[in-house]
Amino acid sequence: MSTDTPKTPKNEEARERLIDLAAEFYDQFAQGEVPAMRIPTRTKSNIEYDEEQGVWVYGDRHSTRSANSVGGAQKLLKAVYVIDFLSNQLQEGRSSTLRELYYLSESWDFDAAQFSDQDESNQLVEDLEIVSDVTREDFNMRPEESGATLMGPLFLREQTRRGEREIHCQEDVGEGGYQIPNNPDTIEFLDHDADFVLCVETGGMRDRLVENGFDTDYNVIIVHLKGQPARATRRITKRLRDELDLPVVVFTDGDPWSYRIYGSVAYGSIKSAHLSERLATPEAQFVGIQPSDIVRYELPTDPLSDSDVNALQSELEDPRFQSEYWTEQIELQLDIGKKAEQQALASRGLDFVTDTYLPERLSEMDVV
């Protein structure tokens, strides 16, 4: 484990809620009841698309983790051990990774409390998020992978373990940009000259845009998604939209898996449905690569695989893609049987994406 940011009011609240949860188990014992923990059923069949909010949410079905069986008792035992660990971590102002939690369980004094694999420990942390209504970021839990960045005319203040620092995300950073912290809620936006936010799937395209000065020429904050975006990336994107009132557009490859990357930014993901209100940005628009771009610009392509076709057909039934635009684009892609990467635009020159493609598309969308 390593020292993280100083303790915050949210950390204190997180610790109190964890202790309250443990106290509930104790009270159940004291009243002669079988200890239990009730959580939403975390299956695809219990995920609903909230039309009003435009995000994925859990439905009404719940399951109960009860000590009335050996398996249920073991799950509650593990929950108590994790609550104890997280409570101490927050008290000490420390942080740890999800991977470290899994390995730390091997040192716990009761074998039945140890995790069989990391998926089990990850799921338990998510369960605690749901029942406590506190995010793992406020538990000071970090994913193993990080490093998503943003670049653009944004001035901010961040809290670090060394104190506060103020950063301009163009003038005070290198070509790699500003690295988004695990918990973006430790950031305070001070000022900006941005007109919109552009979320970019691939590192190669992000580097092309920065090298060509697109962030400067169009006053845009470029957020590198790094493929399927991490929670921190989605959280800061939502904050930029909600707090600074900036339009958000998403620029990905032209394949069904990349459309789902857009979907996770705009509508949330099934895995994090309990956090959709914090992570999803329903106002986000898709800028490309569109199947119609493949035809219009005669881009270099790869053929659709069987799994690509199945994914596209599934998206035709997906509530996130139930619009005339998406139906037209997906049916066109199935018809031409091709997919293309963002970098395929380079076939028309290294400046084509910044001089022609994005300006034209963004103008059509009334973003610029």
UniProtKB/TrEMBL annotation:
Query: Keywords for this entry?
Result: ATP-binding, DNA-binding, Isomerase, Magnesium, Metal-binding, Nucleotide-binding, Topoisomerase
Reactions mediated catalytically: ATP-dependent breakage, passage and rejoining of double-stranded DNA
Q: Report domain Type II DNA topoisomerase VI subunit A all-beta positions.
A: 144-193
Q: Where are the transmembrane segments?
A: none
Please report the stretch or stretches of sequence annotated as the Spo11/DNA topoisomerase VI subunit A N-terminal domain.
75-140
Q: Which GO terms fall under molecular function for this chain's record?
A: ATP binding; DNA binding; DNA topoisomerase type II (double strand cut, ATP-hydrolyzing) activity; magnesium ion binding
SUPFAM superfamilies in alphabetical order: DNA topoisomerase IV, alpha subunit
Q: Does the keyword Metal-binding apply?
A: yes
| Domain Topoisomerase 6 subunit A/Spo11 TOPRIM intervals | 196-362
Which residues does the entry assign to the active site, renumbered to this chain? 103 (o-(5'-phospho-dna)-tyrosine intermediate)
Instruction: Determine the domain of life of the protein's source.
Output: Archaea
Where is coiled-coil annotated?
none
**What EC number is given for this enzyme?**
5.6.2.2
Q: List, separated by semicolons, the cofactors it needs.
A: Mg(2+)
Listed CDD domains: TOPRIM_TopoIIB_SPO
* Any one Gene Ontology BP term: DNA topological change
EC class name: isomerase
Q: What family is this protein classified in? A: Belongs to the TOP6A family.
> Function, please?
Relaxes both positive and negative superturns and exhibits a strong decatenase activity.
Description of how the protein assembles with itself and partners: Homodimer. Heterotetramer of two Top6A and two Top6B chains.
Q: HAMAP family under this entry?
A: Top6A
The name this protein goes by in its record: Type 2 DNA topoisomerase 6 subunit A
| Gene, per the UniProt record | top6A
